[in-house]
Amino acid sequence: MRAQLAAAWTLSMVARAASRVLSVLPMGDRAERFLLERTWSSGSAAMLDRYLVAGYQNPRLNLQSIALRHVLVSRRFGAEFESIMDEEIRFAIGLNESLRARAAELGVKMGSYRNPIKQAAVRRVDAAIADRQMQLVDRWRSTLEGRSIEPLAVLELACGSANDYRAIAESGLARHLDYIGVDLSAKNVANARRRFPGASFEVGNILELPYPDGAFDEVIASDIFEHLSPEAMEAALEEAMRLARHGLILTFFNMADAPDHEVQRRRAYHWNRLSWPRIEARLRESFASVSAIPIARLLRDRYGYAHSYNRHAWTIVARRAAPADLPSAWESRVRSS
Ligand SMILES: C[S@@+](CC[C@H](N)C(=O)[O-])C[C@H]1O[C@@H](n2cnc3c(N)ncnc32)[C@H](O)[C@@H]1O
C-alpha cells in the first residue's frame, strides 16, 4: 500500500513538473492537449459536477443556454413556439435579477468557482430561486411531449459534466435530438454518463474528432474557444465546420466587436477575447448565414434589463443555407446574413 501511494505521489509530482515546464514554453499541439487535459481534470469529479452549473451559469436561467435550446427547437419545429421563447427569456431575466439581489444581500461575489467554500456561497444565493427555477423547463417538457419528429443529429463539443445537457434533458428537448457530447476530461464524461446513462458522452479531443464530414445536423459548443491558443482555436473551429451538415450554435463568454483577437495566455490555458468580425469572416467561408447575439446588448435594448451577468457574452449562429431564421426573440441588430 505504501509503495503504491509513493508511486502515485511520484507520478503526480512528475506530471506537475511537466505542466510547469510546458506552461512557459511555446504551445505545440501535444503540449496544449496535455495542459488542457490536466487543467480541466484537476479537482474531484464531485467538484466538476457542480462547477459551471451554479449561479448565473445554471442552464435553466443562463441566457446563452436558453438561446442554444431555442435555436435547436426552432431548427426542428420552426416558429411554432416563439411565444414561449419570449416568455422564457423574461422569466430567466427575473431569476437572474433575484440572484443578483440575493447575492448583494448576502455579500456574495458571484462567479464560477472550483473552491468549495466559494461554491457553497453561490449555492446559498441559488436557494433564493429554488422553488421557481424549474417552471419554464417544466412548461417546455409538457409542450414538447407527445411530439414525434425526425431527431436532429447534434454534436456538443466540450460538454463538461453534461452542463447544458441537463436542461436540454429536463425540457424534453433531448427526446428530439440524436445527441453526442464530447469532452477531453474523463471525469467530466464519467459524471455525464452517470447522470444520463441513456445518452452518449465520449472522451475526445475537439481538435481532431473521429467522425466523418457532415456527420451532424448541428454542432454546438459553449465557452471553449476562448480557452484555446489561436492555432488550436482555428483547428477546433475547422473541426466544428467540417462536422456540421447544416449549422453551428456557438456560445462565447469573452467576445467583442473589435478588429482582432486579444490573446491572453494563462499558465496552462488561454483566456482570450475573441473578435466577432474575425470569427464571422472565418465562418462565412463555409456558411451562407452568420448571426450574432450580443447577449448584454439584446437584454438591454429589447428587454430593458441593464444587468447582464456578462457583458462579453455572445452567441453565434451559422447556417449553410440563408436565411438563418433565428427565433424572433433573439434577433439582434448586429445580425448579418
Ligand atoms: C469552460 S468549460 C465549458 C464546459 C461546458 N461547455 C459549459 O459551458 O459549461 C471547458 C470544457 O472544455 C473541455 N475541453 C478543454 N479542451 C478540450 C479539448 N481539446 N477537447 C475537448 N474538450 C476540451 C474541458 O474539459 C471543459 O469541460
Instruction: Give the end-to-end Cα distance, rounded to a whole number of Å.
Output: 63 Å
Q: Radius of gyration in whole Å, from Cα?
A: 20 Å
Nearest-integer average pLDDT: 93
- Portion of residues within helices: 40-55%
Shape: globular
Ligands bound, unique = S-adenosylmethionine
Number of domains: 1
Strand content: 5-15%
Strand arrangement across the biggest beta sheet? 3-2-1-4-5-9-8
Q: Which class do the helix and strand fractions yield? A: alpha/beta
Look up the CATH topology.
Answer: Rossmann fold
CATH hierarchy: architecture: 3-Layer(aba) Sandwich
CATH superfamily: Vaccinia Virus protein VP39
Order of helices and strands: HHHHHHHEHEHEEHEEEHEHE
Major sheet attributes? 7 strands, mixed
Count of separate DSSP helical elements? 12
Describe the protein.
The chain has helices at 2-24, 29-41, 45-50, 63-77, 82-106, 116-126, 135-144, 165-170, 186-195, 230-243, 276-284, 295-303, and strands spanning 152-157, 177-183, 200-203, 216-222, 244-252, 255-256, 274-275, 289-294, 314-319. With 337 residues, it is of the alpha/beta class. Helix 10 (230-243) links the parallel strand 4 (216-222) and strand 5 (244-252). The protein has a single domain, classed as Vaccinia Virus protein VP39 (Rossmann fold). Bound molecules: S-adenosylmethionine.
